[in-house]
Design brief:
The structure holds 2 protein chains of 2 kinds. Chain A is α/β, with parallel strands linked by helices. Chain A is built from 8 helices and 17 strands. Chain B has a 9-stranded mixed beta sheet, with helices on both faces. In chain B, β10 and β11 form a beta hairpin. Classes of the chains: A alpha/beta, B alpha/beta. The structure holds flavin-adenine dinucleotide.
Chain lengths: ~325, ~240
């Protein structure tokens, strides 16, 4: 028995969510953990996956894979699963993994569960808890297949490094022509920002901010906290902020440890994307705003007055 | 352009989710076209108009989903197919779609990036893999030039633009198109459009839903005075331990 875990990098560094996936794979207790890593990552960083529980790393360094091609990535993962005879494949959710997991499941003939939020219950079979109804509920799902594919949500386990070094091997697969049927023409990415789905802290703002010119104080607060910025749907619809910052039912779902919502009313569709945050702080001038019911801490006040002062108060301790 | 749009039949986004007898308590719940599927449908109708093509909508579901399919017809789809079965898991649904796609042949298959009930996000990738077609998700822009499509895919912190030849499968999201609202004429015409009911192909389920639960209730919101933000910082640091 063995477990395979898919490891992704961003700008040459392994993502923290991938470290969480390695820890999750180890904690499954279902045999030796092998990681399959894609992209240009330094040998030291790959060997350090041992600190999270990987015994071995298969490194698919083929440059053609750097463009995160969905079909080719699925082929590499399935080939690694076959080589290691893995009974379980674990991946941390990301825009790539969300697109790839289904193809891996079909290629390997596996039972698959996405958006898993806890380690499985193996007292009777293999039952995982996953988010359903867009963050409003959880389902316990049994995966009876001999092979399983699981994608996990951010912060499902803590990724504290321990001791250990993984052995690293170069790995490749027989690609078919179809694996590269999509060609990347262009990529636009906000440089230097903390990626929203990876962020441990998030500062989010809504229509209450009145216009895109007022986001400076939100960015300042995010900078103090080392947080990513997010927004409500109308804010991205009006193009005050880029679409990839939009959280909620029709946007990104996040589960950071701290979510600060400024001038957001807390509509049920917004809450759907953020209610698995560990701690929620709401700043709103309307004491009746529904968001207060979903919050841990609240400040009733004008954002234009509160946010700059909150930033100063935080700077004193951070 | 011959387009297949797969739609889910899901609770309205304002629904307060409750469970009864280990399934969704549907009392008082109204059902809609999945919001992501609605974006896919809207873009499909635009492409159909531009290319003088056709749009078929497909749902795997029991007879209760027919009003949802009629709504898609009212929005502008030409015909509908209902695979008469409970959509028990992603593989089951994907096998039905694949069987219909093999039989009828389409230039592209569009659907939402995920359903808003079970949020699996798996069906587009499974169908793509089973048909041997590329699958692209989450797709936020789709333009056609002959048999080549240019798509934008949302990635962390931005987007990438891809080029692919027909046929392909895409899991869509905003802002690919604006949601379309059916007008009176559309609703009248929808009554006469074909809605074909077909029997499912046999598939073994690879997952089984055992039980549901609701998230733990919040203990309640602690309000901090706007003039005492040091206290908020101290609570975040010492009580919530998130700083
Ligand atoms: C199918 C569907 C899907 C949807 N998906 C999403 C989604 O994914 N994400 C999402 O966010 N929404 C979504 N929505 C929209 C959602 O219903 C709400 O309309 C939206 O979340 C409201 O955004 P908001 O809170 O920024 O704006 P508003 O509701 O306008 O709230 C603004 C808030 O700011 C406060 N405010 C105003 N001025 C100040 C000030 N000076 N200081 C402090 N507070 C102030 C107000 O009291 C108010 O509470 C969806 C809707 C539908 C129908």
């Amino acid at each position: 028995m063995s477990v395979l875990v898919f490891v992704e990098s961003d700008n040459g560094s392994i993502k923290s969510s991938s470290h969480e996936a390695v820890v999750y794979a180890k904690e499954l207790g279902a045999g030796e953990v092998t990681a399959v890593a894609v992209g240009s990552i330094s040998a030291d960083e790959l060997a350090d996956l041992g600190k999270y529980g990987a015994a071995k790393v298969l490194h698919a360094a083929d440059e053609k894979l750097n463009d995160n091609v969905i079909m080719a990535t699925a082929t590499i993962i399935a080939a690694a699963a076959s080589q290691t005879d893995a009974s379980i494949v674990v991946m941390a959710r990301s825009s790539l993994v969300d697109a790839v997991a289904a193809r891996v499941a079909i290629k390997t003939g596996a039972s698959v569960a996405t958006n898993v939020v806890a380690l499985p219950d193996t007292s009777a079979g293999f039952v995982v808890k996953r988010g359903v109804y867009t963050g409003k509920a959880f389902a316990n799902v049994s995966l009876p297949g001999a092979k399983k594919v699981i994608t996990i949500a951010k912060n499902t386990v803590a990724a504290e490094p321990g001791e250990g070094t993984a052995s690293v091997e170069v790995f490749s697969a027989d690609f078919g022509e179809k694996d590269f049927a999509t060609a990347r023409k262009d990529v636009k990415k906000a440089e230097g920002d903390i990626l929203l789905p990876e962020a441990d802290r998030v500062v989010s703002a809504g229509r209450g901010l009145k216009g895109p010119e007022n986001w400076g104080m939100i960015e300042d607060l995010a900078k103090t906290l080392g947080a990513a910025t997010a927004c409500s749907k109308p804010v991205s619809d009006m193009e005050w902020r880029p679409h990839h910052e939009h959280v909620g039912q029709t946007g990104i779902k996040i589960s950071p440890t701290l979510y600060i919502a400024v001038g957001i009313s807390g509509a049920i569709q917004h809450l759907a994307g953020v209610n698995s945050s560990k701690v929620i702080v709401v700043v709103n001038k309307d004491p009746e705003a529904p968001f207060f019911k979903a919050a841990d801490y609240g400040v009733v006040g004008d954002a234009f007055d509160v946010i700059p002062r909150l930033n100063e108060a935080l700077k004193k301790v951070l | 352009m011959k387009i297949l749009v797969c739609i889910s039949h899901v609770p309205d986004t304002t629904t307060k989710i409750k469970f009864k007898d280990n399934k969704l308590d549907e009392d008082g719940v109204s059902f809609i076209i999945g919001p992501y599927d609605d974006y896919a449908l809207a873009r499909a109708i635009e492409i159909k108009t531009d290319t003088n093509g056709t749009v078929t909508v497909l749902n795997v579901g029991t007879a209760v989903t027919e009003p949802t399919l009629r709504k898609a017809l009212a929005i502008g789809a030409d015909d509908a197919i209902r695979v008469d079965a409970e959509p028990t898991d992603a593989l089951f649904v994907a096998e039905q779609i694949t069987a219909i796609a093999k039989e009828n042949g389409y230039d592209m298959i569009l659907m939402g990036r995920e359903s808003s009930d079970f949020n699996g996000g798996l069906v587009h990738g499974m169908v793509g893999e089973m048909l041997g077609w590329p699958s692209i998700a989450p797709c936020m822009k789709l333009d056609l030039d002959g048999t080549t499509a240019t798509l934008a895919r949302e990635i962390e912190g931005g987007k990438e633009t891809l080029e692919v030849s027909l046929p392909f499968v895409a899991g869509c999201q905003e802002p690919i198109a604006e949601w379309k609202i059916p007008n009176m004429r559309g609703i009248m015409m929808a009554r006469k459009k074909p809605l074909n009911v077909v029997q499912p192909v046999g598939v073994d389920n690879v997952t089984e839903y055992k039980s549901f639960e609701l998230p733990a209730e919040k203990a309640g919101c602690k309000l901090v005075d706007a003039d005492n933000l040091d206290e908020l910082v101290s609570l975040l640091k010492n009580e919530a331990k998130v700083l």
